[in-house]
Amino acid sequence: MNLARTGLAFSLAILASAAFAHGDDKQTMAKHAFDPSKVEQRAFGREGDPRKVTRTIQVDMSDGFRFTPSDVVLKRGETVKFVVSNSGKLLHEMVLGTPQELKEHAEMMRKFPNMEHADAHMAHVKAGTKGEIVWQFNKVGEYQFACLIPSHFEAGMIGKVVVK
Fold first, then answer.
1. Which of 89, 91, 133, 161 allows an S-S link to 82, with CB 3.0 to 4.6 Å?
2. Is there a contact between 144 and 158 (Cβ–Cβ < 8 Å)?
C-alpha cells in the first residue's frame, strides 16, 4: 500500500512540474539579467552584453515548424539580439548550439519532455508572445538554432548561423 501511495505521489509531482516546464514558470519567464562574471564560453560563442548589441534580428517561429529567417550570416565578434516571435498556437523555442549539441539535447528532450531549463542561449516562447536571446558570436563557424520540443526538431524546425 505504501509503495502505491509513493508511486501516486511521485506521479502527481511529475505532472504538477510539467505545468511549469519550458518557461511557463514565472521565475523562468523573468527577464534574464546579464552578469559578466557568469558568462561561459561555449563552442558557438557566449552570452552577449545587451549594451553591446550591434544588430537585432527578428525571428518568427510558426506551427509549420519553421523559423523565418532560417539562415543568418554574421561577422565574428558581433553581439546579436534575436527577438523571437511565436506566431503559432503551440509553444516553441529557439536554442542556439552546434549541430551535435542540438542533436544530443533533442534526444534528451524526447526522454524527458518536461525538462526545465532557461539558459542564455535559449528562448521558450508561448503562442502569441516574444522572447529574446543576446549572444556574442566570437568564433568563426557554422552553427544552428532549433526548436527542441519533442517532434518539432524532428519535423525540421532548424535554422543555420554562419559566422565569418
1. 133
2. yes
